[in-house]
Write a structure and sequence with these properties.
The protein is of the alpha+beta class and 142 residues long. It is built from 5 helices and 3 strands. The longest helix has 21 residues. It comes from Bifidobacterium platyrrhinorum.
Length: 142
């Protein structure tokens, strides 16, 4: 008796060309998404800043979101679309949030994105602690 293709032991694709193989080889690293690479760059910069200023970076929480919310915070006169700082309040630690899509859309290539992430982190840490960005990162340029 003839069986339907989905009941057979070896399932073939709809054109009968054979079993589908994985897209990536077993020995090749998987493709990194743009959001994954962005998270890795942010983590690397936070590690670098944490080594230089552990007392400033340790109490701060860092987050990455895709896009900024449409409503600005009440204390911000000129809201930035690239990042936002939230001071510590009622038992909540201070937070710095980077927005991935605006930063990626304003830069061309990985090098520019890396510098933009560094600049945003340094500016927001300086804003949080009332310091100039040059004090936190001597290589910072406006």
């Amino acid at each position: 008796m003839l069986e339907t293709p989905w009941n057979e032991r070896v399932y073939r694709n709809r054109h009968g060309r054979g079993v589908r193989t994985p897209m990536f080889g077993t020995r090749l690293p998987r493709y990194r998404t743009r959001s994954g690479m962005f998270d890795d760059l942010v983590a690397a910069h936070i590690r670098r800043l944490s080594e230089a200023w552990p007392e400033l970076v340790r109490p701060v929480q860092f987050a990455v979101e895709d896009v900024p919310p449409s409503d600005p915070a009440p204390w911000e006169t000129e809201p930035s679309v690239n990042s936002r700082v939230f001071p510590a309040d009622h038992g909540m630690p201070a937070r710095i949030v980077l927005y991935r899509m605006p930063l990626q859309s304003h830069t061309r290539g990985k090098d520019e994105l890396q510098w933009a992430i560094r600049d945003e982190l340094v500016i927001r840490l300086g804003e949080l602690y009332g310091r100039r960005p040059e004090e936190i990162d001597p290589d910072f340029e406006w």
